[in-house]
């Protein structure tokens, strides 16, 4: 495809007007102010459109679309224990399949090309991911409350398949990660076993870390260590890790994360809605920590439109720290794109540059909220809506365009999710 006469956000998220961008063999092959001689196939009319890197959502629980609007107005521990866990006990692979497709649909329609997920029900999730064509770093949520050996757990068997049969599927779009749900839902024996498994297989790891003050302080009471120091002690950070939330980090924790190259998956909408607090993102950025963006699940957000989290990421910390210069639009866009790609180990993705993977999205700029376009970056962060996305491309393949999903029967998916949620609720 050749995008013609289109405005774009370059590698520094600066606006370039009336450009030509050629996509070939899944990569960006040409960027210039004049039309290339090479034939790139379909010519896309870029008038009143903005081209930019697609988004990377680095913390989600996709099948939790089934719980949207169900578990509400409760603190985290009650939210989990009274609502989420009982509902999840009723989910099966078929429900997870449709819940995952619904989540992917929502992400594609709002410009997301890749997501990192921590959940269960791989018999439903994996087919949904592969059929949709989206990219995903998938991990099997691991919780254990007894003295079981890691190799005796269902999660271990899923992890073996994930790292063997499924890792690298769909030309590398699916990557298998390992997971520790959190310190408070595991024990040192299991944490060390997962850390060893990751070292042996070269896997990345996804965890929750210091999401709430209660979690953070109780970990210190149990182990005399913050959650970050605890995970470091037991070897989790020996492998590339994405740590979700990190709201209650203490001074030494920032050094630990920076030293080990841990990515923080900041989830501002979820943290605000569950009243978990405000992550110290300015200090993370000042410390040189890679900070990316996640939506969390639809039960705690309640949507998977990462542009909402971009807006909050761009404004909340200005208010909390009473400094309007904290976090620039370029830093917001970096967190939503390149930082997320790096967190997934996709080093050739997340930038609009020649040679990079063609994970791209197109926004309609012929709207009231995009007028005038004094700064495209500011408009995307502070004014744009998920509905402004007109196209989402993954490795050069168009998966969503002008309201149409190319790989998903959205009407069937919506009906199946409603039916299965209603069935589960009738049993609770």
TrEMBL record:
**Record-linked InterPro entries:** Amidohydro-rel (IPR006680), Metal-dep_hydrolase_composite (IPR011059), Metal_Hydrolase (IPR032466), MTA/SAH_deaminase (IPR050287)
Asked if Hydrolase is a keyword of the record, the answer is yes
Record-linked CDD domains: ATZ_TRZ_like
- Taxonomic superkingdom: Bacteria
Amidohydrolase-related domain sequence ranges: 51-398
Q: Pfam families per the record?
A: Amidohydro_1
Q: Keyword Hydrolase: yes or no?
A: yes
What keywords tag this UniProt record? Hydrolase
Protein name, UniProt field? Amidohydrolase
Q: Report the source organism.
A: Agathobaculum hominis
């Amino acid at each position: 495809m050749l995008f013609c006469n289109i405005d774009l956000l370059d590698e520094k998220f600066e606006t370039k007007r009336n450009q030509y961008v050629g996509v070939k063999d899944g990569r960006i092959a040409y960027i210039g102010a004049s039309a290339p001689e090479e034939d790139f196939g379909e010519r896309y009319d870029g008038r009143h459109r903005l081209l930019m890197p697609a988004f990377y959502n680095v913390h989600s629980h996709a099948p939790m679309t089934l719980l949207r609007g169900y578990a509400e107005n409760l603190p985290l521990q009650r939210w989990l224990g009274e609502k989420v866990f009982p509902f999840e006990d009723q989910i099966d692979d078929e429900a997870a399949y449709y819940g995952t497709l619904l989540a992917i649909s929502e992400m594609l329609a709002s410009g997301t090309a890749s997501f990192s997920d921590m959940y269960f029900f791989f018999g439903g999730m994996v087919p949904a991911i592969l059929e949709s064509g989206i990219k995903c770093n998938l991990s099997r949520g691991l919780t254990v409350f007894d003295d079981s050996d890691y190799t005796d757990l269902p999660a271990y068997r899923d992890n073996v398949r994930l790292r063997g049969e499924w890792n690298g599927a769909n030309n590398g779009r699916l990557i298998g990660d390992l997971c520790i749900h959190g310190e408070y839902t595991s024990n040192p024996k299991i944490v060390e076993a997962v850390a060893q498994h990751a070292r042996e297989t070269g896997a990345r790891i996804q965890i929750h870390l210091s999401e709430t003050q209660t979690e953070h302080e109780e970990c210190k009471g149990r182990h005399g260590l913050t959650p970050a120091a605890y995970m470091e002690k037991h070897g989790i950070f020996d492998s590339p890790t994405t740590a979700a939330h990190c709201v209650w980090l203490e001074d030494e924790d920032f050094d630990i994360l920076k030293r080990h190259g841990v990515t923080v998956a900041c989830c501002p909408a979820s943290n605000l809605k569950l009243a978990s607090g405000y992550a110290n993102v300015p200090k993370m950025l000042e410390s040189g920590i890679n900070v990316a963006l996640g939506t969390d699940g639809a039960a705690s957000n309640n949507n998977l439109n990462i542009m909402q989290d971009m807006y909050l990421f761009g404004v909340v910390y200005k208010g909390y720290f009473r400094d309007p210069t904290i976090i620039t639009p370029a830093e917001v866009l970096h967190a939503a794109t390149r930082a997320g790609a790096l967190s997934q180990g996709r080093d050739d993705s997340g930038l609009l540059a020649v040679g990079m993977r063609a994970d791209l999205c197109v926004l309609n700029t012929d709207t009231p909220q995009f007028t005038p376009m004094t700064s495209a970056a500011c408009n995307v962060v502070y004014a744009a809506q998920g509905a402004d996305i007109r196209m989402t491309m993954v490795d050069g393949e168009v998966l969503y365009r002008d309201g149409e999903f190319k790989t998903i029967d959205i009407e069937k998916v919506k009906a199946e999710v409603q039916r299965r949620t209603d069935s589960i609720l009738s049993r609770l």
